[in-house]
Amino acid sequence: MDASTRGRVTGMGDDLGNLLGGLLGGEQGGKGGALLGALLSSLGGAGTHGAGSNPLGALLDTLKEGGLGAQTDSWIGRGRNQAVSGPEVAQALPYQALDHVAQQAGVSPEEAADQLAQTLPQAVDKLTPDGSVPEGSLEDLIREQL
User: Which CATH number fits the domain that encloses residue 112?
Assistant: First the structure.
C-alpha cells in the first residue's frame, strides 16, 4: 500500500473511529473506537457481505471464520454478550489487518488485540440493535445511535 492510499484508509478509519468512540463513550471508547474504526476500514469489503456494504458484516464474517462464531452471535443477539480475549481476537483476525491497525495506533499487535477484545462486544451490540447486522452505511447507523 503506497503512502497516499494508506493516508486515505487512515482518514476513513479516523472518521469511523471518532464516531465509534462517541458511540462507546469515555476514554476507553475513544481508544477502542479508533482501533475498531481502523480495523473496519482495513477489512473493507472482505467476507460474504461484499465490498459495497457495511464493513461490520465483513468484520463479523472474519471473526466467525476465525472461530468466534458463538461470541459474535451473542453480541448481535439480544441476550448477554460473551466475552472474548485478546489472543482469541488475534487468532481470528488476519495478521496483516491486526498488524496494520496496531501500527496506526502505535501499539503492539497484542495490545491492539486486547483493546479490540474489550471494545468489540459492546460496539457490535450497539451497532446491531435489532438483533441483526444492519444494511447500509455504518456511519449513518452510528449517527442514529448517537
Answer: 1.10.10.690
Question: Whole-prediction pTM value?
Answer: 0.75
5-21 tens-digit pLDDT: 233 333 434 555 666 66
Domain of residue 37, residue span: 3-145
End-to-end, the C-alpha distance of the chain in Å comes to 33
- pLDDT tens digit sequence for 70-82: 999 999 988 899 9
Helices (H), 1-146: 3-24, 26-43, 55-63, 69-76, 86-92, 95-105, 109-127, 138-145
Rg of the chain taking only CA atoms, in angstroms: 14
Are 118 and 32 in contact by the 8 Å Cβ rule? The answer is yes
